[in-house]
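> call design_seq(struct)
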């Protein structure tokens, strides 16, 4: 969210950032607690953690819901619309995530709504639609690549029907597309798809269900890439 706002040259209100963070905790917290049985075969270590701390995670989700509501009160209606769209997709995740293609599409849209849609809607100034589309293209392709790679260990999403090689190639293509879009239209965001591309390349030779690599490296690449983007924009005086 901060990287997208910085690239667009708009200030991200603290309330909007809190809404995005807390709302994410609610959606993922509820999904993890409700879907323990189906997650057990795909992410056993994470599922064991959720089981050990289930009561704490339920409490955290409730607290996060309160923070999200309070954060949204004084934000523009456009932010509510983006949040509602992402939240609806998130809460239907449990019923839809067994279809790999659908999962990649709607989760990407949800994250783009949060990371780009909320900063744009919360901005006190009008943002050019083309600028928002450029940011959405870079971030969306990086997230799509992340999701395709993550599906390698997610047999319930239909990944078992897709070869590991094809999944890695598809993920690589998404991330490469994100890099190309960034270089052409939003170079300061290039670290996000570039680091995701490097993380996907590291999958080669690993078991397709390498849980910790997926959760730490493949997912973490998005965070590290966004931090580098922020630093680059700050150094450039953006």
């Amino acid at each position: 969210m901060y990287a997208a706002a910085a690239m667009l040259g708009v200030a991200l209100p603290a309330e909007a950032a809190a809404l995005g963070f807390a709302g994410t905790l609610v959606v993922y917290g509820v999904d993890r607690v409700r879907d323990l049985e189906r997650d057990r075969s795909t992410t056993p270590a994470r599922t064991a953690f959720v089981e050990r701390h289930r009561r704490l995670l339920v409490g955290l989700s409730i607290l996060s819901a309160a923070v999200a509501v309070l954060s949204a009160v004084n934000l523009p209606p456009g932010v509510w619309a983006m949040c509602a769209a992402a939240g609806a997709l998130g809460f239907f995740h449990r019923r839809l995530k067994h279809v790999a293609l659908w999962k990649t599409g709607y989760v990407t849209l949800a994250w783009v709504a949060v990371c780009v849609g909320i900063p744009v809607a919360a901005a006190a100034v009008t943002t050019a639609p083309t600028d928002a589309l450029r940011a959405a293209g870079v971030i969306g392709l990086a997230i799509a690549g992340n999701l395709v790679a993550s599906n390698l260990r997610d047999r319930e999403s239909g990944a078992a029907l897709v070869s590991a090689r094809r999944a890695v190639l598809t993920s690589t293509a998404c991330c490469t597309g994100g890099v190309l879009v960034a270089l052409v239209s939003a170079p300061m965001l290039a670290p996000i798809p570039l680091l995701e591309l490097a993380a996907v390349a590291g999958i080669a030779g690993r078991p397709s269900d390498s849980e910790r690599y997926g959760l730490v490296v493949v997912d973490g690449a998005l965070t590290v890439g966004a931090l580098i983007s922020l630093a680059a924009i700050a150094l450039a005086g953006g």
